[in-house]
């Protein structure tokens, strides 16, 4: 069974550009999460989908971030326009039940220069 | 603000020893507790979950939870060099809440 997959693994963009990250969760997992780790800090929650609905987006830093999960399958996270402080590793995770631990993808390392 | 605290380490143990990793959390109503292992440059890997007070064993790993003290630990018996990684403590902060609050992680180094 395939795990959580993320694309791309690395992205280097200039300040002001747009980047879209993609996550394919484990098949059958209704819950999909986005997390971010900036250098020197802990992994922090951004957003939670249940199927195609946003359950909780309290961790989204600002309106430059837009997450979608059309059809309840894969999800995208768009940053537009990117700022220097957006640099970090963006993790996607998925789970079956809401109280279960989530399974993480390998992450997308985003560098904004 | 809800927090999860871990000693950043590194915690150094010789091969074959018991490694003890500790974590405290601030939110008393936390319900679920998880340990993730993360190798450098890789994704966090779920290795243990615990939901009630006491011990839970899985192979060489034992998770211990004490909700009264707001403390959760992970013991690794017969530590191997391949156990060298960063261990992340994560807490599900509330009933009906499924998002995780992470600590910064403890780096474990197991020397041959």
Describe what you observe in this structure.
The complex is a heterodimer of chains A (113) and B (112). Chain A is mainly β. Chain A is 0% helix and 49% strand. Chain A contains no helices and eleven strands. In chain A, strands 2, 4, 5, 6, 9, 10 and 11 form a seven-stranded mixed beta sheet that branches. A four-stranded antiparallel beta sheet of chain A has the order 1-3-8-7, with no helix packed on it. Chain A starts with a strand and ends with a strand. The mean pLDDT of chain A is 93. By secondary structure, chain B is mainly β. Chain B has no helices and eleven strands. In chain B, strands 2, 4, 5, 9, 10 and 11 form a six-stranded mixed beta sheet that branches. In chain B, strands 1-3-8-7-6 form a five-stranded antiparallel beta sheet, with no helix packed on it. The interface between A and B is medium-sized, with 25 and 25 residues.
- Quote the distance from N terminus to C terminus of chain B: 40 Å
Q: How far do the termini of chain A sit from each other?
A: 37 Å
- SS-derived structural category of chain A: mainly beta
SSE run of chain A: EEEEEEEEEEE
Oligomer: heterodimer
Q: What kind of sheet is the major sheet of chain A? A: 7 strands, mixed
Low-confidence stretches of chain B: none
**What composes the largest sheet of chain B?**
6 strands, mixed
Per DSSP, the total helix count of chain A is 0
Q: Would you report the number of β strands of chain A? A: 11
What topology does this entry show?
The complex is a heterodimer of chains A (113) and B (112).
Chain A: E1 5-7, E2 10-13, E3 19-24, E4 31-37, E5 44-50, E6 53-56, E7 65-68, E8 75-79, E9 88-95, E10 103-104, E11 108-112
Chain B: E1 4-5, E2 11-14, E3 19-25, E4 32-38, E5 45-50, E6 54-58, E7 61-66, E8 71-76, E9 85-92, E10 101-102, E11 106-111
Parallel strand pairs in B: 2-11
Antiparallel strand pairs in B: 1-3, 3-8, 4-5, 4-9, 6-7, 7-8, 9-10, 9-11
